[in-house]
Design brief:
heterodimer, A: Rossmann fold, eight-stranded mixed β-sheet, four-stranded antiparallel β-sheet, 11 helices, B: mainly alpha, MetI-like fold
Chain lengths: 330, 303
């Protein structure tokens, strides 16, 4: 993961804005407000790397992941995949890219078609992307992939509702991997699972990543999980980037006040330290993304906010070789 | 177990019950559905082989036996098992021949509104910006008109015949299907598995008919079986107004409406077609119920 490598995915200043009817005037001619779900996010992803994305609910993590796959079209910015700007491409380009970028979903059962058997679900990407493969070849690959993710062959004709959450997520992983993609976007893949199952799934993902040389974008709100799997971590707040840093740099030495507040909320597995630690509580609620604060979006809840935070726009800037931060005071 | 060991990996998949057998297992678990299927099968066989099954020609009039009661009642004769109608036609023969027309009308009216209904409903759900509202407003206009009035208008324009009756009935029942399909498709479209299919590279057609449609089938099957019965009754109403199947052809609905005048004097004239319609509709609804359960993997008995 040397910096000399070419990034496989470069996201440059991506914005996803929605036009929403505002509050009490839902008339079609009423002026629409702009909801800035993702507002200018940039990062690079290198082959074999795992980028963790954290942030509280509604900060645009999922929207960002869907924008990368064009499930929700980005409003502005560049999404460069292997040197090609996808936003300038047409539907056929997207179709080709989806062979390389696959996704794992939060709710394992809801992400599987209830009317299809496991074999049909796992084979679906092959049938749409590789129609030239014959039936026997498809089934052979499905069997191999099922074994690889820890399912047994006897389960091949079962339906999703006959499986537990962890098994369903394994089916989802098998479906994502069957095309041998280069990047998998995991949208909170373990937050719906038990802790013991979480560990199994995370370890499976890590194993598969090592074997197949995958890159991962791993979205989560559980900081411990993110720390376990990620190489670098992107902290988002209200659709913007707060901090982008290597995981050790971020956990040992958080630079942004928001990251510091997030990290202070992680419980220690040591009662003595746990009793004496100070949690930085953030005052107030998350501001509305329809009407974000001026300057730094975090300033309304920031314990260190100063006058200039309201005036100057923030931008991710390099603090040291591992860390980029958007705080004006750092 | 020994047989399983001998099987190769390919044969193992075949060891599961075939889809047809699996379907029958699910279906036969529902006893009501099986009874409905048996009844409908009897009616269909009788309709198909009507010339051999029916004792008389349905339009032959036996003027000496007008309004003869059924054979077991006072004044009934063994010649006319279910009695005769007001101009001496054998009720049983008319019911058997009537099954041909009534089932044909019901089935073709349902199919010719179900298929366009599914297509229009899916289009409305998949293109919610322009095409969707357009389709739905047209459907609203059709729903705003009283259905029988619209059917009469259509038959009046096209001219009375059986084909035009079917067309009129299917046009009238189209909005119900479109709304139903659109509503359930729109809920399904927001589900994660549809997004997953999109990520897996499914095109719009595949999304429509492979991903979304099978998950919308439950309410559709129920609605289709229900509208089968209302199609028969609508055809009867049109016939009553002289715009449906023309006399002397035997048709259950027409038999029912033409016998109304004798309801006090000769209960059998109106009861037999009514009962036949009731039982067929019940049978079809039961079959629909069984179909819905058998096609839903979640309700399947564990194999």
């Amino acid at each position: 993961m040397s910096e000399a490598q070419q990034p496989i995915l470069s996201v440059r200043n991506v914005k996803v804005h929605f036009q929403v009817a505002h509050g009490d005037s839902a008339w079609p001619w009423a002026a629409k407000k702009t909801l800035k779900a993702v507002d200018g996010v940039s990062f690079d992803l290198y082959p074999g790397e795992t980028l963790g994305v954290v942030g509280e609910s509604g900060c645009g993590k999922s929207t960002l992941s869907r924008a990368i796959l064009n499930l929700i079209p980005a409003t502005d910015g560049e999404i460069v995949w292997m040197g090609k700007d996808l936003r300038k491409g047409d539907a056929r380009d997207w179709h080709r890219v989806r062979r390389d970028i696959q996704m794992i979903f939060q709710d394992p059962l809801a992400s599987l078609n209830p009317r299809m058997t496991v074999a049909q679900i796992i084979a679906e990407p092959l049938r749409t992307h590789r129609p030239e493969l014959g039936d026997t070849e498809v089934m052979a690959r499905v069997r191999k992939m099922m074994k690889r993710v820890g399912l047994t062959e006897q389960q091949i004709n079962r339906y999703p509702h006959e499986f537990s959450g962890g098994q369903c997520q394994r089916i989802g992983i098998a479906r994502a991997l069957i095309l041998e993609p280069k990047l998998i976007i995991c949208d909170e893949p373990v937050s719906a699972l038990d802790v013991s199952i979480q560990a199994q799934i995370i370890n499976l993902l890590k194993e598969l990543q090592r074997e197949m040389g995958l890159s991962l974008i791993f979205i989560a709100h559980d900081l411990a999980v993110v720390k376990h799997i990620s190489d670098r971590i992107l902290v988002m707040y209200l659709g913007r980037e707060m901090e982008l840093a290597g995981k050790h740099a971020l956990y040992d030495n958080p630079t942004h006040p928001y990251t510091q507040a997030l990290l202070s909320a992680i419980p220690f597995p040591d009662p003595e330290r746990e009793r004496h630690k100070t949690i930085q509580l953030l005052a107030g609620d998350l501001p509305s993304p329809i009407n974000p604060p001026s300057g730094c979006v975090f300033r309304t809840r920031c314990p260190q906010a100063q006058e200039r935070c309201a005036k100057e726009p923030t931008k991710l800037h390099r603090v040291d070789d591992k860390t980029q931060c958007s705080c004006l005071l750092v | 177990m020994t047989t399983q060991v001998q099987m190769s990996a390919e044969d193992k998949a075949l060891a599961y019950p075939s889809p047809l057998k699996e379907f029958w297992q699910g279906f036969s678990y529902n006893k009501g559905a099986v009874m409905g299927l048996v009844f409908l099968a009897v009616v269909v066989v009788a309709a198909l082989f009507a010339p051999w099954v029916a004792p008389y020609n349905p339009i032959d009039q036996y003027r000496d036996f007008m309004l003869t009661p059924p054979s077991w009642a006072d004044g009934g004769t063994a010649k006319f098992l279910l009695g005769t109608d007001e101009i001496g036609r054998d009720m049983l023969s008319r019911l058997i021949y009537g099954a041909r027309l009534s089932l044909l009308i019901g089935l073709s009216a349902v199919l010719s509104s179900l298929i366009p209904g599914i297509i229009l409903g899916l289009l409305a759900a998949f293109y919610p910006k322009v095409l969707g509202p357009l389709i739905m407003r047209v459907m609203d206009v059709m729903m705003a008109l009283p259905s029988l009035l619209l059917a009469i208008a259509i038959v009046a324009i096209l001219g009375p015949s059986m084909l035009n009756t079917i067309i009129a009935i299917s046009v009238v029942s189209l909005p119900g299907y479109v709304r139903l399909v659109r509503a359930s498709a729109m809920t399904e479209l927001n589900r994660d598995y549809v997004t997953a299919a999109r990520v897996a590279g499914a095109g719009t057609l595949r999304l429509m008919f492979v991903t979304v449609l099978p998950n919308c089938m439950a309410p559709l099957i129920v609605h289709a079986t229900m509208s089968f019965s209302s199609a028969i009754l609508d055809a009867a109403a049109l016939g009553f107004l002289g715009m449906g199947v023309q006399p002397p052809s035997a048709e259950w609905g027409a038999m029912l409406s033409s016998a109304r005048d004798y309801i006090e004097r000769a209960w059998w004239v109106v009861s037999w077609p009514g009962l036949t319609i009731l039982l067929s509709v019940l049978a079809i609804n039961l079959i629909g119920d069984g179909l819905r359960d058998a096609l839903d993997p979640k309700l399947k008995r564990a194999a």
